[in-house]
Amino acid sequence: MPTLKSFAGVVLLMSMLWSLKFFYQQFDVPVRTLPYRGPLTVLIWDWPFHHVLNLSGDVCASLYHIQSCRLTGNRSLYSQADVVVFHHWELQEGMASLSSETKPPGQNWVWVTMESPTNTKALASWNQIFNWVMTYKQDSDIFIPYGELVPHLSASMEIPPKSGLVSWVISNYHQAQKRAKVYQELAKHLKVDVYGKASKKPLCPDCLLSTISRYKFYLAFENSVHQDYITEKLWRNALLAGTVPIVLGPPRANYEQFIPASSFIHVEDFGSMKELASFLRTMNSSCYQNFFNWRERYRVKLSTDWRERFCTICAQYSSLPQGKLYSDLESWFRT
């Protein structure tokens, strides 16, 4: 017969569990669990651009707090893999040649790219193959942006000291690109200090951020214009460096889905590059400081480690659609 004391203990325990549940709901603490009896095995068929990363130990749990997730590059485990990941560059170069008939029952294949549609070829060859897509596009099954702003209690408004007005780092400069034409027009009205492989001022890898941070503004110009295609040019080269991005890419409304409207300048905000140049030259200190108000609450988180991206598959596995197949991968990607 349960005693009053034991009954009170049960009530106390239930109360504590309810309070814990309320705590997680109130603060929206993410709990990453998988409705799976054992760890998921994610086979990386080819490391992106052949840059093999260390997978020793429980990488997903130790580095990214994602449990029950095993990454492997060992193709001999193919028949045991729950998910197989294919990076498009290797497919494009003819370095991966599995057919859908060899796929074990219940196994899902993921198509991965971080390139824009303009720089992605040979998509028609891979219809009726992939179950899920993992890209920078927000409508991907597994969304992996180049960066994001995350809440941060100890964020700071400190702005690096400035000695220059506008800079740009460019590796591949082609006259036909929109960014080249916009730069040429802007340069008629304003001096832009250009660095990188495509200039006469190459930068060492460790010099990038320290150099850019000395300028008030940075040309975060994408190599092609597509929905959601917002790369490290914004996240690392501008926001992380502590300068104000002048962006060229998708429309302003698309950028505002990722960052505050007051944190950047869009080239389409102005009727001409002459107007933009005048705006930059005549900006007062107070107006300039306002571009950094986001720093009071947020910090920049870059997504650069492919292990973290692949671990994300496990974190989202339980909510991914089952039985899905991309019949026209090219149409989806180019939309």
TrEMBL record:
Fucosyltransferase C-terminal domain: residues covered: 160-332
Source species taxonomy: Eukaryota, Metazoa, Chordata, Craniata, Vertebrata
GO cellular component, one term: trans-Golgi network
One Pfam family this sequence matches: Glyco_transf_10
EC class name: transferase
Reaction it catalyzes: an N-acetyl-alpha-neuraminyl-(2->3)-beta-D-galactosyl-(1->4)-N-acetyl-beta-D-glucosaminyl derivative + GDP-beta-L-fucose = an alpha-Neu5Ac-(2->3)-beta-D-Gal-(1->4)-[alpha-L-Fuc-(1->3)]-beta-D-GlcNAc derivative + GDP + H(+)
GO terms under biological process: ceramide metabolic process; positive regulation of leukocyte adhesion to vascular endothelial cell; regulation of cell adhesion molecule production; regulation of insulin receptor signaling pathway; regulation of leukocyte tethering or rolling
Fucosyltransferase N-terminal domain span: 40-147
Gene Ontology molecular function: any one: 4-galactosyl-N-acetylglucosaminide 3-alpha-L-fucosyltransferase activity
Organism of this sequence: Sphenodon punctatus
Protein family per UniProt: Belongs to the glycosyltransferase 10 family.
Pathway info: Protein modification; protein glycosylation
Protein name: Fucosyltransferase
UniProt main location, coarse: Golgi
EC number: 2.4.1.-
Keyword Transmembrane in record: yes
Superkingdom classification of source: Eukaryota
UniProt KW keywords: Glycoprotein, Glycosyltransferase, Golgi apparatus, Membrane, Signal, Signal-anchor, Transferase, Transmembrane, Transmembrane helix
